[in-house]
Amino acid sequence: MENIIEIKSLKKIYRDFWNRPKVVAVDGLNLAVKKGEIFGMLGPNGSGKTTTLKLLLGLIFPSAGSIRIMGVSPENMECKKNIGYMPEESYLYGFLNADEILDFYGRLNGMPEKLRRKRINEVLDIVGLSEARKRRVADYSKGMSRRIGLAQVLLKDPELVLLDEPTIGLDPIGSREIKDIIKGLKDRGKTVLLSSHLLAEVQTICDRIAILYRGKLVEEGSVEDLLTVSDETEIITSGLKSADIDKLKELVNKSGGKLISVGHPKETLESLFIKLIREKSGKDT
Amino acid sequence: MRKIKFPAIYIIVVIFVLLITYVLQSAGKGLVPELYWTYFRAAALFVLVFLLPLFNRRIRTIAHSVLKEEIRKKTLYVILLFMVLIVGIIHIFGKIAPGNQHIFVSELGLSGMTMFGLLFGIFMASTAIYKEMEKKTVYVMLSYPVSRQEIVMGKFIGNVISVTMFSCVLSAVFIMSLLLRFGFEKFEIMLVYSCIGLMMEFMVIVAIAITTSTLLSTISNFIFVFIIFVLGHMTEQIIHITSRVEADSIKSAGKILLKIIPDFSRFEFKDMLNLGEVVDVNTLISSFGYALLYCALMVSIGMLIFRKREVDRL
């Protein structure tokens, strides 16, 4: 599959006023993101995830190494038409309302008026802000600000979407909705690169991940490959009686294996929460 | 070979246009009146500084958003307050001032307008680029196909339009109040010229503030531009001081300073108003050309600085 992002030996050194090296934020990073995948950058705070995204957007410049997005430099204007970016916090103009903000970004992207109006209505529906479209963004809650941040990304309908901590500040339902939108992007053939320190979130939506620590790449691969414990086997059954479980234990022992645990599988807290809230809202309506 | 980018081309075009007018002027000496060349240069600079950039959709969008922001700010209330103040001053001082009441009141009003316009211009333009970086709105903007140079130019044009609108409202109210108080027979055309001079001065201040806002924080920028404003009004004093000192180093420092800082005396017509003189249109156009040239150079410097500015480092 074709690489949409290619990062080679990327280094970013922040310097002080006297040009002395202060922090090495990214240190010799090599990364390739394939077209059509959801790629997650993981790492603790200060591991270089956001710096890498800033470098990809041309907000800051590399100290060494190279970045190619769709085969060109991040500063290329044509390339920027195909990149959508949602920052960690929604940095938007508080004096504008949702409609005006999207109109502003649509104009910057060179969208003709008719298409712009149509797309604004569509994306406001997708992010659930149609009713609040005339409210000033400064009066939005954090969750609503995140949604309008995502709306400006969807407005462009870009080939590559860069998301910095996409679900931070959202409640579990909002978080699930954003994850569904991200999966929807992948289904439409878009490439998503997201950075997060929420491991469960990355695990559920990403195809491949890279783990960064102190600006260096520690591990990279598909989620499936990295998380599979190849020398253990998981059997999930239903309707098994305790006598059958004893037989199963015996069988495992006889065949030279070791039964590590037997118990009932657990739901995730997120899925339980969403199920309960949806049941309750269903009853209320 | 490295590609020549926008600010470089912009500076080259500005210098080229100026050069070509001078070459044509000397080649066709006597054929065309000298004054026409001044008009032509001012018009060419106006096209380069304002009209051509406005053909760019992204610059237009950014300028429009600046204007929208200023209109929605509390600035309008300040204007309203100032209008009331002007009218009040005219009515109070018009009664107690002896002699040329209208000249005294006009000067008072113009000084007030300078102060309010200056505060408005500096506050607005000093934050233009820096606030984008501080609030990180520039992160999202730069993820769109917008160049950094277009951002600087859009901010400049938006701020100049805002400050000009602000000055126009103030001037209109001020002149109307004078007309109501003293009638048409005491009306001086120099008052209109003085207001136009003030607008040119604000335009230059905006250009300086925009350029320095690519580097300095709001407070430092405010102080810096204010110092430039004071120095720009002291060009005659600087010339006088440097001519009297003996040390060559101070003389050269003074000369360099005079070349760098804008000469705001070109836009000051208050003294002429006091003396009952009228500025000729040619001087006004020549001052306009000077303001435009200064703006073009300042904005070009701003674009060059912001081109390689790391927007996450404040």
List the helices and strands and how they pair.
The complex is a heterodimer of chains A (285) and B (314).
Chain A: E1 3-15, E2 21-34, E3 38-42, H1 49-57, E4 64-69, H2 77-80, E5 83-86, H3 98-108, H4 113-126, H5 142-156, E6 160-164, H6 172-187, E7 191-196, H7 199-205, E8 208-213, E9 216-222, H8 223-227, H9 242-254, H10 269-284
Parallel strand pairs in A: 3-7, 3-8, 5-6, 6-7
Antiparallel strand pairs in A: 1-2, 1-4, 8-9
Helix pairs in contact in A: 3-4, 3-5, 4-5
Chain B: H1 6-27, H2 34-54, H3 57-72, H4 75-96, H5 101-126, H6 128-134, H7 137-141, H8 148-182, H9 189-212, H10 218-232, H11 235-244, H12 248-260, H13 270-275, H14 281-307
Helix pairs in contact in B: 1-2, 1-14, 2-14, 3-8, 4-5, 4-8, 5-8, 5-9, 8-9, 8-14, 9-10, 9-14, 11-12
Quick summary of this structure?
The complex is a heterodimer of chains A (285) and B (314). Chain A has 285 residues and is α/β, with parallel strands linked by helices.
